[in-house]
Structures are given as structure tokens and as C-alpha cells.
Amino acid sequence: MSTRTITMSDAQIKALAKQLEKGEKRKTPPYAQFQIKTSDCIITAYTSGKVVFQGEGADFYADAYDKKSSQPSDQPQNPHTEWYPQCGSDEVGTGDYFGPITVCATYVKKEDVPFLRELGIQDSKAVTDERIRELGPILCERLTYSLLVLDNAKYNAIHPQYNMVAIKSRLHNQAYVHLRRKLGSLPSLCIIDQFVQAKSYYRYLHDVEEVVHTIHFETKAENKYLSVAAGSIIARYAFLQAFDAMCQHYEFPFVKGAGSKVDQAIRAFVKQYGKAELANVGKLHFANTKKAFPDSL
């Protein structure tokens, strides 16, 4: 688990609190202003101005406020969203206990734009699963893309060595490596829907043999770039296909997300198939596992 401690101004701490307003507010420790838990990080802000970030998402949250982590870049800070051709990637499944992690990078040419606009392509989180199942095959047929699916068994095997952010970084990079091989070369504009600062992203790839360096990182990119939105939909489509196949294979009603209903589903699944099989359907390090079996798992 990563831990970062930085000093922040009152204004920064207020901005951080607003950024985290949807997180779980925990009991405030002594001398702290607040402690908030997100899906991958616990953030504690102290009255002294010190802020502690603990968890897999520590770098992502801390880097946004840590001046020491910033680095100069020759990439445009706000590349025009209508530059084509462009490539974009997004991931799905990182917030779901059950099911795989999918990452897709897509290549969009200028001539693809009217077609995609007519389909109403947008971030997959804003599209119903039913519509995703309709759009997925259409986009797969029209666009050049690279799709990676990391199943639960493999995820649980590598998670002790690589945290969630590292795994996402490696999957995005590999998706771009595959896409570059398909295309021969990548366009000048390649976007990742940002989940970590660039410096940390490349640090997670320090031992990877082939790294794509010409990446632009931008938050909410799925709402700004058609290539990222298309990648988001194909990734979601692949996730749904794998999720549906898992439900059919086990004849079990798996639940999406990571809420209390997932805890109930975990107990029901283990009762039917045993604890060992859970590693093949779920992400074991999620808090849901301990909530479902606080005394035994």
C-alpha cells in the first residue's frame, strides 16, 4: 500500500474536501480536519496542513497537489478535442468486485466522426448496458482497436506484486503497444482518461520492455474525445460479455459494483461453490471480502 504525505494550503485542503465530497466520511482522528475514504485511498487532512494519502490511489490524489511531482512536458496541455486522427483509451471493471478489468484503445479518423456522432457515442458510464450491447459490435466492426481483458484469477495472482494503479498503467500501455503494431505507428494525439499523474504512470512502467511515451493524460477525457468514448464503450461491452458468461457458467446472479449487495452475493456464492472458487470471479483484495467474511477470509 502506498503512502504519501504532503503539506497543503487551507485553500488546497478546501478544494480537496470538495473533490472528495462523494467519498465516505470517516471518524475524524485527533488533530485532523477530516478523513475521507474513496474506493482506493484514505485521505486524512490535519490542522497542521499535513495531508496523508494511503492506498493504491495515493499517487493519483497526492500528485494533483504536490508541486514536486510536476514535470515539464512538450505535449500541449489542452490539445484540441477535434484533432484527428486520434487514439484514446479507457478502462472498465476497476470498481466492480465481480468480473474482469477491461481496457480498450481505439483509433478514430476524421471520416469516422460523423458516423460516431450519429450513433451518439459518449462515455460508457452515461449509456445503459442494453445500449452498450448494441453499440459494442458496431464499433468493433468500424474502428481499429486494441482490447485487453484481465480475468479475476490472473488479477488476484498479480495483485500482490502490482497494485490496482500499476495494473491499469500496464494494461493501458500494452493496449497502445498492440494498437501501434496494428497501425504501424500511432498518431500524434493519444489520450488516456487520466487515473494517475503522468510521472507516476511511467514510474509504474519502469520494468516494461516496450513503453509508449507520447501520451496525453486528461481527466474526464471520455466526455471530450471520441476515441476515448469509443474505447470506453468497447471496454464496457467486453466487460458485460465476460460478466454475462460468468453468470451463465456458474448459473449465479452476480452483482455489479462494490456495495452491500455484493457482500451478500459473496456469501451466497461461497456457500454454493466454496471459498477457493471466489478467486476466479472476484477481486479478493476489495473490502467486500472482509465484510462478507470478517472472521474467516
UniProtKB/TrEMBL annotation:
Key words, A-Z: Cytoplasm, Endonuclease, Hydrolase, Magnesium, Metal-binding, Nuclease
CDD domains, alphabetized: RNase_HII_bacteria_HIII_like
EC annotation from Swiss-Prot or TrEMBL: 3.1.26.4
GO biological-process terms attached to the record: DNA replication, removal of RNA primer; mismatch repair
Residue ranges, compositional bias (Polar residues): 70-80
Residue stretches making up the RNase H type-2 domain: 84-297
Comment on bound cofactor: Manganese or magnesium. Binds 1 divalent metal ion per monomer in the absence of substrate. May bind a second metal ion after substrate binding.
GO cellular component: cytoplasm; ribonuclease H2 complex
Binding site for a divalent metal cation: D90, E91, D193
Keyword Magnesium: yes
Keyword DNA damage attached: no
Source organism, top-level taxon: Bacteria
Localization, UniProt: Cytoplasm
GO MF, any single term: RNA binding
Uppermost EC category: hydrolase
Region (Disordered): 66-86
Catalysed transformations (reactions): Endonucleolytic cleavage to 5'-phosphomonoester
Cofactor(s) essential for the protein: Mn(2+); Mg(2+)
Record-linked PROSITE patterns: RNASE_H_2
Chief localization: cytoplasm
Task of the protein: Endonuclease that specifically degrades the RNA of RNA-DNA hybrids.
Protein family membership: Belongs to the RNase HII family. RnhC subfamily.
HAMAP family documented for this protein: RNase_HIII
UniProt cross-references to PANTHER family, sorted A to Z: RIBONUCLEASE, RIBONUCLEASE H2 SUBUNIT A
Protein's recorded name: Ribonuclease HIII
